[in-house]
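Kindly review this protein for my students:
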Amino acid sequence: MPHTIHAGVTASVTELKKNPMGTIAAGNGATVAILNRNEPVFYCVPAAEYEAMLTLIEDAEMNAIADARMGSPEIPLSLDDI
């Protein structure tokens, strides 16, 4: 069954076992797809890219909350009330 590979660099599980840091370095800061029998089994994602993905997910969740509250009535408050 064909699979879409979402990375510019691929490596086998065997290559990863032999030289983990070298395999990750081959991605030059980008994601490396790890293949088992020519099928992607997981992706090695650099820390900075992973953190950026988490930020995007968090932003999307916050936007969904804001969109859900868009039609809610406003409640006036003063700083003294808080």
Summary: The chain has one domain: 9-69. Helices lie at 13-18, 20-25, 47-69.
